[in-house]
Amino acid sequence: MNVLSRSGAASVPSGAAALYRSLAAWYVRMRGGIFLMSVAAGVLAGLVRAGNPFVAWIAGVLFGWPGVLGASVGQLIGAWAVQGSFLASLGLAVSVALSGSVAFLVFCHVPGIGRGLPTLRSYIWFLLGAMLGGLLTAFGVSVVLGGFPGPRFWNGAAEGLIAVLLLGPPMLLGADRYLRRWMEPIPGEKPARRPRLLTAAPASVLTGLDTGGQETVALSMRSQTGGRRVLLVGIALVLGLTLAAVPLSVLLPRGGSWAVLLYVIPILWFGNQYGLRGGVLAASASGLFYLFGASWISVAGFGDGVDVWSRCADLVILSLVGAFVGRSREHEVRMRDELADSNRLLRRDLLRVAQALTQAVEAKDSYTEGHLRRVSEYAVAVGSRLGLRGKDLEMIHYASMLHDIGKIGIPEEILRKRGPLTEVEAEVMRRHADIGARLLEKLDLLRDAAPIVRAHQERFDGAMDETRYPGYPMGLRGDDIPLGARIIAVVDAFDAMTTTRPYRAALPADAAVAELRRQSGRQFDPRVVDAFIDELAERPWVREESWH
Length: 548
Fold this sequence. Notes:
mainly alpha; Hypothetical protein af1432; 3 domains; 20 helices
């Protein structure tokens, strides 16, 4: 007897431990925290509006089967507390479970979509899942409570769809960004990128020196993130239109549906600024604001008796409009970025070609070694100081790099002569400007640099009979000379004066500056001379020995 008693006593804690282990395993397998949270949300939904499928829908999409089960159990408890009938509450719980199950299965089995609504395809399936889930839940609720296929069914379906449409997108996007680690993993799900402001950045030339000492150029034309000011403007627009739409729905007979159409303005605004998700979120925000305002008006006794949920049905159309406009905007920006990338790569290759041509000139004329690089750097800086931007500055960059490219067509005995040139040799040397321009004219991307190269030896006063430094080849003067050519003329002359030649020593920088001032208004443009001297004051010239 004693043995049996001890055996029976020992089996009780052993059975309790086994039950405890089973419950613990079930809790872990069902991701207990998520399950309990879904139960709590389901209870609240059952107490507030039994039979609304939204909580089960969002729990199913985010947390899978534990979320569906938890929301359904919570709906059962909440509805039971309100209805007082267990069987009716069980029927309502099963009905909302259908909505959550459909939503989860859609995102599990439809390829190429994501819960963060990264594509129009994802949004369309989100909407289809909401519609199908709303219909199934409305069918179940109307069967349990009676009224199929009457107004209860159709009103319930519309209510479920609108609830998912208004509350679903913000919750999905918020969860995708902040709760991704807690969401049910779905193999092959398409990830969503962080929302960004879609703005067309103007093309501009960025110049600098890379790690190899070579000057680089790139066009900046990127979509920019941020846009807090744009976001605040859009929110203010939604609030302002709500203050107009809600009173209009009271003042105009049966005018609520027309008042809702005012929200097309912020929806298109956000779709254009933030893409597909911006347009969809704007539709959700607009509907929630309108629903809150219209409900307050109805409670206050000013409404026209029409259920506010039926007016929000118009937002299904507006949400679709925002999605399609946003998707079109995203496609436009993507194409723009791809074009910018192609443009950048093309200009990078063009720069490499220009550098190769520069090296070819330097190999033929030892004087130009380092000269073209120095002239190019300071010419771009002076051009920027004078207000040049974009393509104009880019052309100065290329023209200054290639202003001596015509020396390829000059005999080496003239280029390498150790002493002053004869008149005949000087005449041959003067051809290099025209030769270089004709070479660049054959290249579409460098054609605009050709006039700069052709005129970089012109004098500002137009003199062609100056004994020492005549202008050539066309005798242009003043503003008839391209500004880029006037800039290169000043920087080129300064570099020539501060560089050692076989027949003379290099001048000190201050002596070269003094010579520029003497020739200002004669050989050189005074405005360019002043800008170059200001640049030298901020960034002193580096003598030629430091460049080798």
